[in-house]
Amino acid sequence: MKTLLAYASKHGTTRKAAEKLAGQLDGEVKIINLQEKASRKVRVEDYERVIVGGSIHIGKIQKSIKKFCQANLDKLLQAEQLGLFICCAEEEKALEQLENAFPAELLEKAAAKGLFGHEFNLEKMSFISRAMIKKVAGVDRSESKIKDENIKKFAEELG
After folding, report:
1. In whole angstroms, what is the distance from residue 113 CA to residue 51 CA?
2. How much is the mean pLDDT over the chain?
3. Which domains does the chain have, with CATH numbers?
4. Disulfide check for 119: which of 68, 97, 103, 144 has CB 3.0–4.6 Å away?
């Protein structure tokens, strides 16, 4: 099965999760970063399976994910399989944030929905972002809490 895995990543966590997921999928997998100009040329209708994922920052997913979903809504709804995922630090709010990140029609269509955990890459953050994370999350060093078991389950749900 030909798969498009489209993501957006601010500090690299969603990219890592997308790459881990791609390694567990059968068939041809094309990974695209929706924040790069080349992603504008992708034809969603050329893929049987489409997976879209992004990260949550201050309760919202990246604008590039929102724009991609809005621009391709009909094509995404026509995909044989659809998967949606987020990377999110607030585990208790993760499901709510997933539901707020994507249009209701896509959530209804999705064969798999994933909560892939988070990372805090303090070295990649601006001074202001680092200060906010330290204060809000109480984190004073980089940490990785990507949920490999959730990624594996997501891949299995898509078959």
Report:
1. 10
2. 88
3. 3-119+145-158 (3.40.50.360)
4. 144
Q: Which amino acid is at 53?
A: G
Question: In this structure, is the dihedral angle defined by the CA atoms of residues 127, 14, 104 and 42, taken in order, positive or negative?
Answer: positive
Reply yes or no on whether the pLDDT at 143 is more than 70: no
Range from 2-11, 89-98, 139-148 carrying the lowest mean pLDDT = 139-148
At 82, the amino acid letter reads: L
CA distances from 73 to 5, 16, 22, 45, 86 (A): 15, 25, 23, 11, 18
Tokens of 62: 């990246």
